[in-house]
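Private note to self, pasted from the team thread so I don't lose it. Backbone tokens:
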């Protein structure tokens, strides 16, 4: 039996509950590819798999330990099951992590994350913090030429950000966009995408250093999103408000809604601080504002952002890089909330 190194989460706890163990290399089933992992980005869900989320993660149940997490995977095809025409061994690939039935009305119109059977590779399956993963060939995309493995792994935040800013936010050149949690992977990607679309960006972040980094990326100004920031937003926009707020925090909804212009869109992709915000619905409908969900991008959006990254028109932000045997340090870095952009683990 072939074995490999993998970062195994054994139970709830601090980073010490993770160990790099020897485990079996996954078996290949029809239609699958054995991917040699070269880089995997750390996401908030990877930390929550170890600590427990701040509130129950709808609609999924608690994880079963031991487990190997990791959804944002880039690597090389190592072996291919019979009947699979692409990729071939040696091809560089990145994983599209949305798992869906492929048959329902939503899948047939290309909306994989609306599928009633939607799950996430690496969160509801064994994931990419390992030397190898077995992935359906249907969930692989080629890494653009000139894009390294770490950058390809970091790119996996971009479909969600694209969904927020472009698809659901309906950004137009000249729009004002407020991105909260600007130092996170999705937040930094949302700034990049909004600027690419010709918008003017305001940012919210929890530390002075993150606010400085957001401005260095191109935001015109930044604010502490733990404060009542709507008055600041109105000041920055001459009393009008912004066209789009990208909010992954939840607790900030009341201030986010008050920050919107008439007809503005609050686009929601998370609830990392609170999942039950309280607000006055009259502040929503009386000013023609709307709230839109954007949990993850679809396959078409994934391909679109990979193309733009390959062309050098979008630029994923990498905070830090750790080898697999320092996976605990990567988790510690994520828990400090000091990171800006993606934390990458290389294998």
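Design output:
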């Amino acid at each position: 039996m072939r074995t490999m190194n993998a970062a195994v989460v054994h139970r709830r706890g601090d980073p010490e509950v993770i160990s790099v163990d020897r485990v079996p290399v996954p078996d290949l089933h029809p239609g699958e590819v054995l991917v040699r992992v070269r880089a995997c980005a750390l996401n908030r869900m990877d930390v929550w798999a170890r600590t427990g989320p701040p509130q129950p993660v709808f609609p999924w149940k608690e994880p079963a330990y031991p487990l190997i997490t990791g959804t944002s995977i880039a690597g090389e095809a190592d072996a291919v099951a019979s009947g699979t025409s692409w990729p071939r061994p040696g091809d560089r690939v990145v994983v599209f992590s949305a798992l869906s039935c492929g048959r329902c009305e939503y899948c047939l119109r290309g909306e994989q994350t609306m599928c009633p059977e939607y799950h996430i590779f690496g969160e509801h399956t064994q994931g990419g913090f390992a030397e190898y993963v077995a992935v359906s060939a249907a969930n692989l995309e080629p890494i653009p030429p000139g894009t390294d493995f770490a950058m390809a792994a970091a790119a996996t935040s971009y479909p969600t950000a694209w969904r927020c800013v472009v698809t659901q936010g309906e950004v137009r050149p000249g729009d004002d966009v407020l991105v909260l949690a600007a130092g996170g992977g999705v937040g930094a990607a949302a700034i990049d995408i909004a600027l690419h679309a010709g918008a003017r960006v305001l940012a919210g972040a929890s530390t002075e250093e993150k606010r400085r980094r957001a401005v260095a990326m191109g935001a015109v100004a930044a604010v502490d999103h733990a404060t009542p920031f709507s008055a600041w937003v109105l000041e920055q926009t001459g009393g009008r408000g912004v066209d789009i707020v990208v909010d992954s925090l939840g607790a900030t909804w009341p201030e986010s809604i008050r920050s919107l212009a008439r007809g503005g869109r609050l686009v929601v992709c998370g609830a990392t601080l609170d999942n039950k915000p309280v607000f006055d619905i009259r502040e929503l409908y009386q000013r023609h504002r709307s709230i839109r969900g954007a949990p993850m991008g679809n396959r078409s959006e994934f391909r679109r952002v990979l193309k733009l990254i390959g062309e050098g028109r979008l630029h994923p932000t990498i905070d830090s890089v750790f080898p697999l045997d320092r996976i605990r340090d990567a988790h510690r870095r994520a828990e400090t909330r000091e990171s800006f952009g993606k934390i990458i683990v290389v294998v």
